[in-house]
Amino acid sequence: MSMNYLPNNIAERAHESGLFSLRIGLECEGVRVTPDARIARTQHPAIFGNKLTNPYITVDYAEQQVEVITPACESEQQAYDFARTLREIVEGEAKEQGEFLWPFSLPPRFVDSAKDIEIAHFDDSPRGQASRAYREELARRYGKEQQLISGVHFNFSFDERLLELCGGHNEAYMKVARNYHRYGWLLVYLLGASPDQTGKHPLSVSKRNGREGYRNQEEIYPDCSSLENYVKSVRNFIEQDFLSEPKELYSPLRLKPHDPRRVLESLEEQGITYLEIRSIDLNPFDEAGMALEDIRFMRAFVLYLLLAPEPPTYACWLHDADQNILQVADNGLDPHAQIKLEGAEVPLRKEAQRLVNEIAQLAHELALGDEVEAAVSSVSARAHDPENLLYAARIKRVTAEQGYFEAGVQLGQALQRQALKERWLTPGYEEWEMSTQLLVKEALKRGIVVEPIDAHDNILRLTRDGRVEYVQQATKTSADSYITPLLMNNKVVTKKVLSEAGINVPEGLEFTRSETKHALRTFVGRPAVVKPKSTNFGQGITIFEQGADFATLCSAAEVAFGFDDVIIVETFVPGLEYRFLVIGGKVAGVLHRASAQVKGDGIHAISELIAEKNKHPYRSTGYRTPLISIQLGPTELEYLAREHRDGQTIPGEGEVVFLRPNSNISTGGDSIDVTDKVASVFLERAGKAAQAFGAAFCGVDMIIENLDDPHSSWAIIEVNFNPAIHIHSFPMEGSERNIAALVLDTIFGEREQPKSMC
Q1: Which of 80, 88, 124, 647 could pair covalently with 419 via S-S, beta carbons 3.0-4.6 A apart?
Q2: Given this model, what pLDDT does residue 536 score?
Q3: Helix, strand, coil shares of the chain as percentages rounded to 5?
Q4: pLDDT tens-place string over residues 464-482
Q5: Dihedral through CA 547, CA 551, CA 552, CA 553, nearest 10?
Q6: Is the separation of the CB atoms in 568 and 600 below 8 Å?
Q7: How far is CA 479 from CA 426, 464, 721, 729, in A?
Q8: Predicted confidence (pLDDT) at residue 758 exceeds the cutoff of 90
Q9: Is CATH 3.30.470.20 the right assignment for the domain spanning 576-747?
Q10: How many whole angstroms separate alpha carbon 301 and alpha carbon 41?
Q11: CA–CA distance, 637 with 228 (Å, rounded to integer)
């Protein structure tokens, strides 16, 4: 296709930014199975809530058939990331039950479909009862096995400007619908991934789209000449009992109305809102169910359907279009396969190559971008080397070698491992703080609508049942008053509030630079801590467990003054430091944050031991993993020098070498969950500290000499607002804690709030 084909009004405005963009939504189905490839017998996970109201994760036909639904996304990458995230959430819950998502569109193994395939359950509302009744009718008409066939639905809408240039919503979308019927066979050919496993159609690419796939019992073709005629023809099919309702029309493309509860009436009154392509098989090689390059190809493909001139039609064109899909689905791997175009038979492979070349040219001339052009080129390669590159050909090779069910298990479990490899990340939110990413993922799991507001400041808008909550950095919410973080940020005020509440705190002084020399002399030789009055992430803190001389204390004071004009010097409290995470007045997790350290093996130097420890998948730089990589910088080298060591020192086997005095995760420390080992009295004290500030969310840092001894010496050294939650969710050692769930329970009123004592 050339730009010469474009109407003048479009060609003249082709340079406008976003004119050829799409809004994209994906719906991906999948069946939960056990490791022996049998359909799961468990219910839809309760954490996903009401199947009728969760906008992201629900069921399709069967209780074991999950459907994930993205919202309308502004880019192909966003749609892909969202689908990946939802599938990862489902895989995580499935793994908890010893299950995984079946990677193929065709069903897994079952003994008796009538018993094994459980029609989805819904609540007793009229909508729930109607949903159940509809599925029972489908079982009667088509059988349960057919309904268990899974796939991907590609929803899209064009830019409003482009629609107007093409004659308006209805006219433009009806043209796309007509052209999809003409050219939809190409998608079945290029994206088909459900080859027949019975031997009946040995050269098939998509049984799901074939004669034995997901089709109506009767050959019915709605009139696509206009929206009015389309609605009339569907009503006629219902009156003749070919369909029970409009959504039973298993067309490869659907016209989507504004109101899905009144399909035909809404189409008449408000027109077409968007289109849904339903002929895409699950991609068993991609964790999202559909590859990113295929999504990008779809943008060029549907623009081709909109902009390509329609050929002259003849009476049987719609019948032939349907037969073409069947022919390609059942025989697409046959090098001699033929399809009909305007009544004439043409070689399938030759026509596919011609068509993808036109789509590639269109993508280039419309300047759809390098990513789309690269995707079109990659997908087009399948048309030129079908035996090696078509998904169906690849699947046939794998299943021939391993067996269908065996291959499904291996592919499905591999996809699950890949999806959960970096569970702390949320695709599309990689640049957000990790704690925020975890909150996003938990909100999506529960069907809470998530809207990113500001990535730089990590601000989200969460909506559930009409209630809106804004959240910053996971734990800054409306549950806390404005004054709470201000009090906690001031270490002097913090100690005063805690002390007045009867909570043990270290003795100490605060002073300005002019007071330094006089004040520091009282701490010479005494175990002490020097820190800024206001600080985060352990910055500017120096600890002297054995005391220090005057000059050393002065140097530490200079470091602290680099972060605040006022510093604090306080008595060092012996023991280990623990972070008590308090949410809604209750301790949600206790973490020992061990100082950055390595354990010797008698062979490797400290620098080598650090490099090896940093290989752990939890460690990286930039706060994008649960732990931060250990550094060997000036602070660490200075600390080592106190013990007459450096990076080349070889510690003895089993010898623990500490690299910093402070125990912050942000400076390379280890996270060790000890929640279940803490004496209850310390849990009570942490809760009391949070209550003193009226804090819904806070991190209480407590020094305890003996964790499990209720009579042990102790002191609270800090109370921190906006505590990180990811360190509790993914500790280096100990139990993982789903803190994000507790955060959502609290801000949406499902967890008791503490009463302010301030």
Answers
A1: 88
A2: 63
A3: 40, 20, 40
A4: 999 999 999 999 999 999 9
A5: 70
A6: no
A7: 25, 16, 12, 21
A8: no
A9: yes
A10: 40
A11: 78
pLDDT tens digits, residue range 623-672? 778 999 999 999 999 999 988 999 999 999 999 999 997 777 888 999 99
Grouping H, G, I as helix, E, B as strand and the rest as coil, residue 586 is strand
**What is the pTM (predicted TM-score) of this model?**
0.89
Q: Where are the alpha helices (DSSP H) in 420-465?
A: 434-446
The strands making up 467-472's β-sheet, listed across from edge to edge, are 449-454, 459-464, 467-472
Rg (CA), the chain: 32
Domain 510-571: which CATH number of 1.10.1040.10, 1.20.1250.20, 1.20.272.10, 3.30.1490.20: 3.30.1490.20
Cβ(578)–Cβ(701) under 8 Å? Answer: yes
Q: Rounded to whole angstroms, what are the CA distances from 186 to 227, 294, 558?
A: 24, 13, 70
List, for residues 112-169, the tens digit of each pLDDT value.
877 889 999 999 999 999 999 999 988 888 889 889 999 999 999 999 999 999 999 9
Contacts with 266 (C-beta within 8 Å, 6 or more apart), sequence order:
257, 258, 259, 260
CA angle 459–465–468, rounded 5-degree value: 25
3-state secondary structure of 65: strand
Tokens of 244: 């029970």
Q: Where are the domains of the chain?
A: 3-419, 510-571, 576-747
Q: Which residues, listed in sequence order, are joined to residue 340 by a DSSP beta bridge?
A: 345
CA 437 to mean position of chain CA atoms: 9
Class of domain 3-419: alpha beta
Give 586-614 pLDDT, tens digit per residue: 999 999 989 899 999 999 999 999 999 99
Quickly count: other Cβ atoms within 10 Å of residue 467's Cβ.
11
> 721 exposed, middle or buried (CB, 10 Å; 0-12, 13-18, 19+)?
buried
Q: Tokens in use for 625?
A: 């993993």
Q: Give residue 751's pLDDT.
A: 57
How many Å apart are CA 581 and CA 28, to the nearest integer? 37
First to last CA, the chain: 72
Q: Given phi > 0 = left and psi -120 to 50 = alpha, else beta, which region is 581?
A: beta
Closest Cα partner for 519 from 553, 552, 558? Answer: 553
| Helix, strand, or coil (residue 648) | coil
For residue 750, CA distances in Å to 478, 583, 584, 691 come to: 14, 12, 10, 18
Residues in the chain: 758
Q: Which two tokens stand for residue 462?
A: 């969460």
Give the separation between CA 743 and CA 696, rounded to whole angstroms. Answer: 9
Q: What is the dihedral of CA 53, 55, 56, 58, to 10 degrees?
A: 40
| Per-residue pLDDT reduced to its tens digit, 282-293 | 999 999 999 999
Which of 264-268, 434-438, 515-519 shows the lowest per-residue confidence on average (mean pLDDT)? 515-519
